[in-house]
Design goal:
This protein has 222 residues and is α/β, with parallel strands linked by helices. It is built from 9 helices and 11 strands.
């Protein structure tokens, strides 16, 4: 494996739909000695039009709580496949999710636990992509894996334009200049500043997580 410590930004929709498979794929990585931290999205609970009907701060608060639901769900399935994990959030839930501490989370990673990170950044106006970039840097991760429903970055939406070209590699600058919608630009800018590489890949494909680390699927941004 190219990387020994990763942070995965997992689509909330995929965590909700396939927690068992995702847990099994994470277990496969940990058995190969890879340390895993995971930030979940909350789009399965609040997204798009529903959020637009609310004040932005309120929508973001609901979104942060939504990520906690997804983290609790994923933790249960990680336990089911025999993995030890810990849950953290800047918005803790008493008796369930601890208050986020970079030092404690880093210690858990070094012990081999899967670290689950809910609550985004804890602030409105920032996406869970940006939370993943920040946590990845705090936890000394070597790569940020953006697990979504498309196999990388395309020149146009592949659902609307089936002939759209997929990029195998992009520089941070090319991504930011292209204004691609698959990932939050604030997160990419932060990764650029601190040289944290990104792999955008299809988490809905069985085996996609390991393939993202071992082959040239998806799009590599550096």
């Amino acid at each position: 494996m190219r990387y020994k410590r990763i942070i995965l930004k997992a689509s909330g929709e995929l965590v909700w739909q396939e927690p068992q498979r995702i847990a099994e794929e994470i277990k496969e990585l940990t058995e190969e000695g890879i340390r895993c931290a995971i930030v979940t999205g909350g789009g399965n609970i609040i997204r798009g039009v529903k959020a637009q009907l609310l004040p932005r701060e309120t929508a973001d608060q609901i979104g942060m709580i939504a990520t906690s639901i997804n983290v609790i769900l994923l933790e249960a399935f990680l336990r089911k496949v025999g993995l030890k994990s810990s849950m953290y959030s800047p918005i803790p839930i008493g008796g369930i999710i601890k208050s986020y501490s970079p030092q404690e989370a880093l210690s858990d990673l070094e012990e081999g636990k899967v670290v689950l990170l809910a609550g985004g950044t804890g602030n409105p106006y920032f996406s869970t992509d940006t939370a993943a970039a920040i946590r990845g840097l705090e936890l000394q991760c070597e790569v940020l894996l953006k697990g979504t429903k498309v196999n990388g970055v395309y020149e146009a939406d592949p659902k609307e334009f089936p002939q759209a070209k997929r990029f195998e590699r992009l520089s941070y600058e090319e991504f930011l200049k292209g204004h691609f919608k698959v990932m939050d630009e604030t997160a990419v800018f932060l990764c650029k500043e601190f040289r944290l590489p990104i792999i955008v890949f299809n988490l809905s494909e069985p085996g996609g997580l390991k393939k993202a680390l071992t082959s040239n699927i998806g799009t590599f941004i550096s």
